[in-house]
Automatic annotation (TrEMBL):
The chain crosses the membrane at residues 6-25, 37-57, 63-82, 94-113, 141-159, 200-220, 227-246, 252-273. It comes from Jeotgalicoccus saudimassiliensis. This is Manganese transport system membrane protein MntB. GO terms for biological process: response to zinc ion; transmembrane transport. Keywords: Cell membrane, Membrane, Transmembrane, Transmembrane helix, Transport. GO terms for cellular component: ATP-binding cassette (ABC) transporter complex. The lineage of its organism: Bacteria, Bacillati, Bacillota, Bacilli, Bacillales. Signal peptide: none annotated. It is a multi-pass membrane protein. It is found in: Cell membrane.
Amino acid sequence: MDILTSYSFLIVAIGTVILSAAAGIVGSISVIKGQSLIGDAIGHATFPGVVLAFMLFNVMETSVLVIGAVLFGIIAFQLIHVITDFSKITLDSALALVLSGFFGLGMALKSYVQGNPNFSGTQGIDDFIFGQAAYMLKSDVYLIIAASVISLVLFFFYYQQLRIYTFDPIYARTVGISIRFMNVLVLAVTIMLIAVGLKAVGAVLIVNILIAPAVTGTLWSNKFMTVLIIAAVSGGMSAFIGTYISTALTGIATGPAIILALSICVIFSMLFAPKGIFAKQSRLRKLGEAA
């Protein structure tokens, strides 16, 4: 109980819970459309932007580093489309190329910066690889809240258009919905959440908070709004549990603890949800008995 009233725990918990809940809602679009790996590629591609922003301004302020992350996320997304539109390279190959290439660039820049006496205070850069939520500041939480609120306001303002765009893009065109604008909107809110979540979860693990809650939601319901609610709740609860475990047990980082909690939630849903393994086996058994 002492942990639950601890100031440092509350700061980290508020940030991670809000981030995971918002990411679960926004990530549902990518999961339903079968574009989950785009978020993974963008997440890894933001890391060199973080390092370059540090190199330019020589400060370890999250608000400054987020700008670099956002810019490189946009560049990565555009590059993926250029590769797939103007070459014979498939989407999955383009994602792998961009993911590994950008992350490799980030690691090379990190090695250069950390070995250069002209740059000081470089230790914090490693936090953006695997995350270090335990060192989140109040300003980081404010940044997460602002990004989450903006993302959710945009999401629900265009909720009807996004729902049609997600399930039937052809019909969306016929009723005058701009597919290009919807793509930009989803990209903008996704990159925004990825950028502010890097310090908490890291570039390697950030995609999990976008995908895992949404996967959980789709396993429990076919209704879009219900999927969003389940994704937000499962994401927020997993973030709280992971933050609590990492605070209570020494030596366990917050980001990986949150990812493990999310993974357990997904595994549980895969087994026991209405669209899970046991439910499918039960239906097949009933069909066999009826035949």
